[in-house]
UniProtKB/TrEMBL annotation:
Record keywords, A-Z: Membrane, Transmembrane, Transmembrane helix
Record's subcellular location: Membrane
Pfam families attached to this UniProt entry: FA_hydroxylase
Lineage: Bacteria, Pseudomonadati, Pseudomonadota, Alphaproteobacteria, Sphingomonadales
Record InterPro entries: Fatty_acid_hydroxylase, Sterol_Desaturase_Related
Name of protein: Sterol desaturase
Organism from which the protein derives: Pacificimonas flava
Gene Ontology CC terms, in alphabetical order: membrane
């Protein structure tokens, strides 16, 4: 029991450190690629709340993960380490199946959490991110974290998956959770408007959910949203208002002699 408690603590620290590293990296990329996009005092307050809720979520994600690892060491899960244990085609198939099942779980639980009775308790915390930032990747109320944290640790008891494939699924989960909340589109326009963006969810799709709560509920794929007619397409030039506000503030500072210059719309003149 003591060993399990130590494992839970270790997994909490690992999930928390992974969150801080990945979201911190993308927050730094955002600050470089879109200076001032999330620079207002209101956004900085929001980002502190996002980090607080995300670190609570790290504990809730860490505990079932630790229990699954505990059972894995005792040989009680469907995770395998010998590549020849299953045909090679199962490797990509299991990754796609895990992602599809996770997406399905997310879509339906997410839609349920938008019910007027569940929303204030479970999901309002996540929608307090307006607009979301890289730090919102795990910014969930603990009740929402519970629903999100249980699926993959449960699947590893049911559906065989190679340990490296499972690592890839978790990496995709982390990456999508972060990049979908950047508040700007990191993928090139030809990707987002092409075949990739028609099937796969990026920030342009999820940002629309944060703007207009009643659409775009998916996590990885647009499959369920399209099937259930909840797909409302992609957000346009989202983040434009924040960038323009930043430029106006920078222009005012430049006009008053503090030296800062607008970086997005250099033609904008101080009023
Ligand atoms: Zn979100
Ligand atoms: Zn939502």
């Amino acid at each position: 029991m003591l060993q399990l408690a130590i494992l839970i603590l270790a997994m909490t620290l690992i999930v928390g450190a992974r969150y801080l590293a990945v979201s911190g990296l993308f927050a730094a990329i955002t600050a470089r690629a879109r200076p001032g996009l999330h620079g207002s005092a209101r956004s900085r307050r929001q980002q502190r709340a996002e980090r607080r809720w995300s670190l609570i979520a790290a504990f809730i994600y860490g505990a079932p993960t630790a229990s699954a690892i505990w059972r894995f060491h005792a040989g009680g899960t469907a995770i395998y380490t010998d590549l020849s244990a299953y045909p090679l085609w199962w490797l990509p198939a299991s990754i796609l199946l895990y992602l599809f099942l996770h997406d399905t779980w997310f879509y339906w639980t997410h839609r349920a959490m938008h019910h007027r009775r569940l929303f204030p308790v479970m999901h309002r915390v996540h929608h307090n991110s307006r607009p979301p930032t890289a730090w919102a990747a795990m910014s969930f109320h603990w009740t929402e974290s519970l629903s999100g944290a249980l699926l993959i640790p449960a699947l590893v008891f049911l559906i065989p998956i190679h340990i490296a494939a499972l690592g890839l699924v978790l990496a995709v989960m982390t990456l999508f959770g972060t990049t979908n909340h950047l508040g700007w589109e990191i993928f090139p326009a030809r990707f987002v408007n092409g075949l990739f963006g028609r099937a796969v969810i990026t920030a342009s799709h999820h940002h629309r959910h944060h703007q207009n709560y009643a659409c775009n509920f998916g996590l990885y794929f647009r499959f369920w949203d399209r099937l259930c007619k909840t797909d409302d397409g992609l957000a346009g030039d989202f983040g434009r208002e924040e960038r323009e506000a930043f430029d106006r503030a920078a222009a005012r500072r430049a006009a008053s002699g503090s030296g800062a210059r607008p970086v997005h719309t250099p033609a904008a003149a101080p009023e």
